[in-house]
Every structure is written in structure tokens, then in C-alpha cells.
Amino acid sequence: MQTEYVLRDIAPPHLRAPVQDSSDEMLISLIADGDKRAMQVLYARHNVKVYRFILRLTGNQSLAEDLVSEVFLDVWRQAEGFESKSQVSTWLLAIARYKALSALRRRTDEHLDDQMAATIEDTADNPETVVGTKDRNTIVQKCLTQLSPAHREVIDLVYYHEKSVDEVARIVGVPPATVKTRMFYARNKMADLLKQAGVSTL
């Protein structure tokens, strides 16, 4: 990915040290001033989490790779407009979510619920095979793919990214009460799916 290499290589290693220990907020401030070293550090610090989040939303590896680069290019362009009302990681995930959902909408043959679920179901192992692997993490991941996109993203943000209800609300763009409702239903559904797969608790 050309843009990814650009982001990775914008500063030589010997120039990275001074900003390496800076907070995310300080990095954004430096990026707003055009500091490419700060951009490289922010990318190194967050690109894997952003990639995994997009991958869970889209289920498409190459699309996720493309969108990660787009997210960080947006950060480079929009750093000046960042307001410290939320954490930088929350802002990054909000940009990532917007880009992931926009990309999925552009693909007329992929619908968030029906088509994505059908695609995932076609490539998944049957329940006996899943239980046979005895790999709890694999089982959890497979159960996650069976949730609706709205429920999957709140589970992902709360458990994998350790975001609070308020932070999730800002990322997703819904009231905190809606996040709580989605969490309630998502946890119940996950509990049922895990039980069917032979795992008693999340």
C-alpha cells in the first residue's frame, strides 16, 4: 500500500526519539504544525488497533488496509481541527467507523446485514469444528461475526478498545442510552451463541 509506506517512512529513525514519549494529544498538536515525526509515531501507536476495528466491521482484509491509510491521511489533514473533547483514540475510531461504513455503502452488492452475514456464514466452520478447535478466542471471534453490525461494533469498542459508554456514543453517533440498549442485547446474544458453541461465559 503506497500511502501506508509514505506514512511509515516519513521520518528517519534517528529523528523519532524526541516525540516517541509524547501523549497522543501532544502528537496531534505537533501534526497540526506539520511535524511528520509526530505523524509517524501516532501511526505506529494506533494503526494496528484501527486496522482490527475496520476489519471487524467490514470483514475485508484489503479494504481494511486501504482504509487505515485513509484514516491517517485524514488525521494529517484535519489535525488542526481536533478538539480535545474526546481522546485521540476515540477520534481515530470515529473516523475509521465513518470510512468503513461509507465504503460498505459504496459496494452495492454488499449490504450490512444480509450480504455480510451470508458471506461470513459461507466461510465459517460448522459448530462441531469450532468446538473441536478448543480455541476460545476463535470461538468468540466466530460468535462476534454472527452479531448484527450495530451490536458487533459496540462489543468491539467496549471490550477490545476499552471505551466507555459515552465514548462509544461519540464514535457511533447515537445517545448513550442507545449504546446501553445495544450492549444489553449484544451481550445476551453473545451469551446464547457462546453457550451453543460450548463456552459458558464471555
CATH superfamily of the largest domain: RNA polymerase sigma factor, region 2, helix turn helix motif
CATH classification class of the largest domain: Mainly Alpha
**What is the strand content?**
under 5%
Supply the number of structural domains. Answer: 2
Gyration radius, in Å: 18 Å
Oligomeric status: single chain
Termini Cα gap: 36 Å
Question: What is the residue-averaged pLDDT?
Answer: 78
General form: elongated
User: What's the β-strand tally?
Assistant: 0
What class, by secondary structure content? mainly alpha
Protein described:
It is a single chain. This protein is mostly helical and 202 residues long. It folds into 2 domains: 1-108, RNA polymerase sigma factor, region 2, helix turn helix motif (Rna Polymerase Sigma Factor, Chain: A, Orthogonal Bundle); 111-202, Winged helix-like DNA-binding domain superfamily/Winged helix DNA-binding domain (Arc Repressor Mutant, subunit A). It contains 12 helices and no strands. The chain has helices spanning 2-8, 17-20, 24-32, 36-58, 61-78, 88-106, 114-123, 127-133, 136-145, 149-160, 165-172, 176-196. α5 packs across α6 and α6 runs parallel beside α11. The two termini are 36 Å apart.
